[in-house]
Amino acid sequence: MRRCRVRKATKGVVSFATALLALAAGTGVASATLPPLTVPVLPAPPLSDDAFYVPPSPLPDGKPGEVIRVRDVPLSSYQGAHVQQIMYLSTDLRDRLVPVTGMLLTPLLQKPGNDNPVVVGTPGTRGLDDGCAPSKQADLLEANPSSPDYEVAEYQQLVALGISVVVTDYEGQGTPGDSSYLVGPSEGRNALDAVRAAERINGSGLSSNSPVGIAGYSQGGQGAAWAAELQPAYAPELSLRGVLAGGVPADMLLEVNHLNGNVTGGAGFALSTLVGLNHAYPELDLDGRLTPEGRQIINHVKQSCYIEDFAAFGTTTVGQVTNPDVLSDPAWQRAYRASLLGTRKPGAPAYLYHGTADTIVPIAQGDMLYHDWCARGASVQYEVIPGVEHISGFVAGAPAGIQWLADRLAGKQAVAGCHEVGLP
Fold it and tell me: Which residues of the chain are in CATH 1.10.260.130 domains?
């Protein structure tokens, strides 16, 4: 039976909104109180001549997970790891091959052999501009100050435990073109193919026998959960042992309506989903629905990273940039619903976590996924973290979740069944 939960704020918790607005003020990003439809001024993006992120044309023949190219990162933000940027083949929602970039962190103290454990990191929101790509932030000479890598500590914890980490940038993030932002089935494919690629890289210490984990938070929690649901059919050869997913937007139609015009939830994130959904489903024809002001705003969103996405778009709604409002369009609603989680049993035991005061992804979404997976026979541990919001939930929940995942990779069995912990 579902239990009622008393949710109250904890003193001393710094809100995500406060943290990002402080960062925004330091970087010159426009205020979150901008009036609707004020188009933020965007400086010209720096030009890049980095050919590594430009895919070959035509793409090489191969299967999903085939490696296109690899290069070492000589000056990295990661300690105790050999860091490589990678490009590999994945598939889009029409089963066409697409190039995806990412990075591989190999522990310097990795055990001998080729069957070492690996976790695929599914990153949280970084923004739509190619310069926001997670793999680019690993290179201190290429890092973008408007897209700091907030998942360094999580990946470093895994590396310190002797576990390799392969991180996907997702389709279109890093490479030219738009990304499938918050389109779950695309993210899940990209994550599973990143593992396949890592196992094929010479000297990685990985192979098809390597124990595999999945870890992500927020958008990354969606990507991790989708990878877990897709794995039995899409990549059954992977030895998946566990999935860690926090702050998961399980129902994107509910989530985009929650974010829409929401200054404390990040109106820019809702606008970004228009780009992501339109890229995955081009028949939606976003360009034909944009108002003149909306076209300027969406062009700005495409060139922004996550701090600006949260702080620069005020209470601007989807209905103010599209005419008619695409959120009332059945075709767009169906496309959002195609990312609904909980319709399949994940391919391994799961650890979910969520803060009760989350204003970006309400905890009702985590509750929903937990109960849906349990109803399908999955083994799930659900950590409810009282009084914390989105970023605080990540900071509070990730360390214990990483240790849980490391135990699964070490061969320790998860407790069977479903268990909700952390209730006040």
Answer: 31-46+253-337
The rounded distance, in Å, linking the Cα atoms of 142 and 212 is 29
Q: Strand 380-385 and strand 81-91: pairing?
A: unpaired
User: Is-contact 13 389, C-beta < 8 A?
Assistant: yes
Q: What distance lies between CA 359 and its chain's CA centroid?
A: 18
Q: What pLDDT was estimated at residue 266? A: 79
Write out the two tokens for 363. Answer: 């905890």
Residues linked to residue 102 through DSSP beta bridges, in sequence order: 86, 168
- State the CB neighbour count (10 A cutoff) for residue 119: 33
268 φ, ψ (degrees, to nearest 5): -65, -30
The CATH homologous superfamily for domain 56-251+342-421 is Alpha/Beta hydrolase fold, catalytic domain (3.40.50.1820)
pLDDT at 83 over 90: yes
Q: Mean per-residue pLDDT for 391-404?
A: 95
CB atoms near residue 331 (< 10 Å)? 11
d(CA 239, CA 370): 23
Residues of the chain with CATH 3.40.50.1820: 56-251+342-421
- Taking the C-alpha atoms of residue 418 and residue 379, their distance in angstroms, rounded to an integer, is 5
Give the list of residues 6+ apart from residue 48 with CB closer than 8 angstroms, or none. Answer: 130, 131
Cα four-point dihedral sign 82, 85, 89, 90: positive
- CATH architecture of structural domain 31-46+253-337: Orthogonal Bundle (1.10)
Residue type, 270: A
Distance, CA of 241 to CA of 409 (rounded, Å) = 6
Q: Tokens at residue 332, please?
A: 């767009």
Residue of higher predicted confidence among 39 and 311:
311
> Distances in Å between the alpha carbon of 96 and those of 59, 128, 223, 408?
11, 22, 19, 33
**Quick check: 23 pLDDT over 60?**
no
**pTM for this entry:** 0.90
Count other Cβ atoms within 10 Å, centred on residue 36: 14
Question: Which amino acid does the sequence have at 171?
Answer: E
The pLDDT assigned to 265 comes to 76
Using CA atoms in the order 110, 112, 117, 122, what is the torsion angle rounded to 10 degrees? 50
**Residue 404 pLDDT greater than 80, yes or no:** yes
268 near 312, Cβ under 8 Å? Answer: yes
> Which two three-digit tokens encode residue 371?
């109960």
